[in-house]
Amino acid sequence: MYNVQLTISTKRGKGARIDIHKLVHVNSQDSLSSGSLSTLDQDEFTYVEHTHSVEVSLAVLDGYIYAIGGWDGLSRLNSVEKYNPSNNTWEYVAPMKISLTSPAVIGHEGHLYVTGGAVLEDGDGIDLVQRFCPMTNVWSDMAHMLIARSGSRACVVNNLIYVIGGWHASTENTNKVEYYDPEKNEWRFCKPMLERRYQPGVAVVEGKIYVSGGEEGWDRYHDTVEYYDPETDQWLIAGVMQTARSWLCCATLRLPVDIRIKERS
């Protein structure tokens, strides 16, 4: 069986790490987002029911896919929908306390975390952190981030939630990285990235955070990939992509042992 972690990016929204055996691909060109479902062991795509927004953030928690916030063509949304892959249906859960596009979202230890996001047309971020409990259908405010940001990325390493890059202010993309300890409800900075990156791709491989692409500014896109080692608190360049890009998707794929042996032979 394959084990996949996938980051999905909508046209203007945040991608979210998918850690299940089925992949959802969202089409954000229309006001209603349709999608397709790929089952790895069958190597085929099947149409799934659409959600009701674009610029939407996705996260997976306990086998369900959540579509969080976004844009309906007229305004930002605070609504949240939950997708059940077993019966191909969406249902609404409790809305967020504030309408957002481009937050960084992650599912962790039975909760959804929504960090930052844009609330105004200029895209400036906020430092708000909202946590959703599916068991009670209630949103709670957690400790605010150390800086405001939108268009950042989130991931989990060693039970800490990292929020990476994004748009800090009207003219500043940021290289700053901070992490959240859910047990202590507090944020701390770690070492910043080597480059400023807005809407990069992020994936976790063997305990290290890999960040690829993203925007340095309006007219500069990165082709570099750098990685962070939490044990040493250091960022290093891992390589260079053939094409500079932002708003990209990243995935890590753990191949079965027999395939790895065949590739090495």
UniProtKB/TrEMBL annotation:
SMART domains: Kelch
Keyword Membrane set for record: no
Keyword tags: Kelch repeat
Record carries keyword Plastid: no
Pfam families assigned to the protein according to its UniProt record, in alphabetical order: Kelch_1
InterPro entries per the UniProt record, alphabetical: Gal_Oxase/kelch_b-propeller (IPR011043), Kelch-typ_b-propeller (IPR015915), Kelch_1 (IPR006652)
Name of the featured protein: Kelch-like protein diablo
Organism of provenance: Araneus ventricosus
